[in-house]
Design brief:
Blueprint lengths: L1 E8 L7 E4 L10 E5 L6 H15 L19 E8 L2 H7 L5 E8 L13 H8 L10 E4 L16 H4 L14 H7 L4 H14 L5 H5 L7 H16 L5 E4 L9 H9 L6 E6 L11 E5 L1
Parallel strand pairs: 3-8, 3-9, 6-7, 7-8
Antiparallel strand pairs: 1-2, 1-4, 4-5
């Protein structure tokens, strides 16, 4: 699944407008760069996509519609065009790739009848397991970090599911347990280490097992990106990364790593520069 377009009207923090996430071919871009000055709405646009996903198929109670209505307005409107891949269309029996969802945020239910989202789309987004064919919308917030307290999150799918779109600082607390689990899973360990080294060539499982305290900020970012993708299997998914250049400053390496997270993903990133990831073959820029 990918996102082809979004229209926002009256949404707090997001300029009104229609946003096309297509490349030169007219299909969904593999890399979408949301660029603009500070406080221009970059992060808010990414999180609006997460809100839409949560309203279609809720996984936690973080969706507060009222907070998304612009001050002085009574409601806000969001229209999103999703693009289904061929295997997803076959699963649903759909002839065309596009599915349009329209949501009215904060509306009085006595005045505005709720719009039921497409049932096929609901089915795809409600399904969850840790296999590559299952769609995820994965969010790596700017506040992402490795060193958090409060206990670990179990590795099994139902414990992990609510955290895919979450900014909860505990999201990555599973990583120490995950690294321990790789001791008995040779193939999974090799896949994880290959991905880890795309982001950070000096990192290895042996070094991680010696302790995470000595890792640099860029190495910690490489670890949480690689461990998340390896555990939940990010393929055929929409991956949103706020400030990918926050810690890993080698742009080419970061792009290779993000494109290596899984097969047929769509990547949304924010940046102050519209030139970020200009080497990507399938790319579009949203300049706010």
């Amino acid at each position: 699944m990918k996102v082809l377009a979004l229209q926002a009207i009256g949404v707090e923090g997001v300029p009104d407008g229609s946003y096309a996430f297509a490349d030169a071919s007219g299909g969904p871009a593999e890399v979408v760069v949301v660029a603009g000055r500070p406080a221009s709405g970059k992060t808010r646009l990414l999180e609006l996509l997460l809100l839409v996903r949560e309203l279609i198929a809720p996984t936690n109670d973080e969706a507060d519609e009222e907070a998304w209505v612009r001050l002085g307005g009574s409601s806000a409107r969001v229209i999103v065009t999703f693009w289904l891949e061929e295997h997803e269309r076959k699963k649903l029996g759909y002839a065309t790739p596009t599915v349009v969802v329209e949501l009215v945020l904060g509306a009085d239910p006595e005045l505005v009848a709720p719009v039921e989202p497409d049932p096929g789309l609901v089915f795809l987004l409600e399904s969850y397991d840790h296999t590559p064919d299952t769609i995820k919308l994965e969010y790596f917030a700017e506040s992402r970090r490795l060193d958090v307290g409060g206990g670990s999150i179990a590795l099994e799918a139902q414990s992990q599911k609510p955290y895919r779109t979450s900014k909860d600082p505990r999201k990555f607390s599973f990583i120490p347990d995950y690294l321990r689990s790789l001791q008995s899973e040779r193939e999974a360990a090799e896949r994880f280490e290959r991905l880890l080294r795309v982001f950070s060539p000096a990192l290895s499982l042996d070094r991680l097992r010696a302790g995470l305290e000595s890792l640099s900020s860029s190495e910690r970012d490489a670890l949480l990106l690689s461990a998340t993708s390896s555990l939940v299997s990010l393929s055929h998914s929409v991956v949103l990364v706020d400030r990918p250049d926050l810690y890993i400053r080698d742009e080419a390496r970061m792009l290779r790593g993000l494109l290596s997270l899984g097969r047929s993903n769509q990547l949304f990133v924010t940046s102050y520069s519209s030139q970020l990831f200009r080497a990507a073959e399938s790319r579009c820029v949203i300049d706010l």
